Amino acid sequence: METVDRPATTGGERPAEQALLRYAMRSAVLLRGFVGLAATVAGVMTAPEVNALVVGALTANLVWSVVFVAIARARGLTWWLAAGDVAFLSGLCLIQQSVTVPAALPGAASWIGGLITMTLLVAAMGLPIRWAIPASLVLVVAHLAGIRPADDGVISAMIHVIQIIAMAVLMRVLRQSAGYADAELAAVLRDQRAELIERARRADERVQRRDLHDTVLSTLTMVGTAGIPGPSAQLRQRAAADILVLDRLAGPDAPALDVPANGLDDRLREIALQADLDVALSLTPVDVPAPVVEAIAGATAEAVSNVRRHAGTGRVRITLTSENGAIQVEIRDRGHGFDPQSTPFHRYGVREAIIGRMQTVGGLADVDSTPGEGTTVTLRWWP
């Protein structure tokens, strides 16, 4: 099983750890405020007597609990706020014999004793572990000094030390687990970026091959098969257009071909005029985004070129319809036809120049052909 090491990243690159600590600290802060309020109520109900020290201690606890929660919600559980909570409660622990019921002191059952566990948790979350443990031990010592246990406080100290160790281990495990989650997430993101780059590279490669197939290779095939018997203006125009395509494919600094601003019906009419075939047109005027115009026009030109080269007929019909924004172009001939299932995979014309080109703009292409019954190519696109 492959393991993923935790990367050395900055805080901003650890979303899982940050989210975990943020929610854990928020819960601890709210719980600390609730326990502080409950401790104040318990102190009022169990006060041994009402004097200035008792009133002052209870009032200070209530005010500090409110201030603690307000600051933590506004600025987060900072190290100085956690240290302040430890210092405040340590001070209360030192005077707890004077402000609590003496019978509740040995078992940490007084209203102050109930705050100790919460403050230990706050220290574990708000302080680095190298400071959280010493600060927690200071609080435990203050507690033992305040209650002056008859048994030297061994049992009480052991309980609190176990709490400190457990909380430190818990925070360590939480941070490590979140760190591993961040490492896994970073690995997934790296893989996704690599996959996107590879997809973009392959898409660019397909576009280049498609452009070469539709222009240079098509012209050379036409010349090689004597499709044009001699010099002609049409051949010169095609050769000039092919040179522009080669210039564009030469590199990113090459000038891009101008994208026509006319509608799809005008582009299909241009294709019909340039085709060396008898083309019947039935075109509904349609305006669609320029990339869609180019994709549909390119696929149509390839279908018409296939008719001229393979269908054995000089006639083809192009139909353009539009309904509720959906576009459909149909190129139909009554030529030889072929079996689409038997077309070799390496043949580029149908697979990429027609189907692949339509997929690049979110459209679909369907080729329906039967030997002896002609071919119908249907192109569909919708916004």
Automatic annotation (TrEMBL):
Family annotation (Pfam families)? HATPase_c
Q: Quote one Gene Ontology molecular function term.
A: kinase activity
What are the transmembrane regions? 29-47, 53-72, 79-97, 103-124, 153-174
Cross-referenced InterPro entries, in alphabetical order?
Answer: HATPase_C_sf, HATPase_dom, Sensor_HK_TwoCompSys
**Among its keywords, does the record have Kinase?**
yes
Secreted as a keyword of this entry, yes or no, is: no
Gene3D superfamilies membership: Histidine kinase-like ATPase, C-terminal domain (3.30.565.10)
What CDD domains does the database record attribute to this sequence?
HATPase_UhpB-NarQ-NarX-like (cd16917)
Q: Which UniProt keywords apply?
A: Kinase, Membrane, Transferase, Transmembrane, Transmembrane helix, Two-component regulatory system
The record's Gene Ontology biological-process terms are:
phosphorelay signal transduction system
Stretches assigned to the Histidine kinase/HSP90-like ATPase domain: 300-380
Please state what the protein is called: Signal transduction histidine kinase
